[in-house]
């Protein structure tokens, strides 16, 4: 059984309707659990990121998982024991904020969220620290979308595979991200046209057809095209365009399908 202290993938997640794979061999799930636990116990969450997210879902064998994990083991950053005094200090909401945005405090934030999840469970902890709406939650929610969306990806896996330890990792990762996109997300939210029914496909086509947005991008910006391209060189048009897409509670399933459709089109 998975706990806030131990990763244990006992069964493959129930099909979501998005992607279904054959039932995986027990040894594959055991190997995935072993590697994830080894990675957590020995290494910082940063660095090892070579696109390995979906090997299990695509039916990789235990040997393939081990081979992929070993690809960049030399680049891993070692973990460290948490500072017990600092972890206790984080229980104070004011003091919690003074450590935000700095990767060297990841291990302390992990221990803090591990304790929170042990006491209150994953759902209550996520609701408290991401969705409550107070100053602390709003700050973390802005950080949640930095780091090329790795926090949502990590938390999504934690929920899908019912892994409390991985959820604690996701929240700790969120805490050490910067909040660079926070003000931009707030601007987009305020600029959203409440009556708009624009589809993502149409928005993508408008983006591709905009001379100014195309000029805003540059190959030299690499993976930071949004920050260094759109936001630096065509912020107003970009925000207006992104703000023309909105999601309501009553159309969440439809909008989820729409994002999958648009991702397939762009691929």
TrEMBL record:
Keywords: Oxidoreductase. InterPro entries: Questin_oxidase-like. One of its GO terms (molecular function) is oxidoreductase activity. This is Uncharacterized protein.
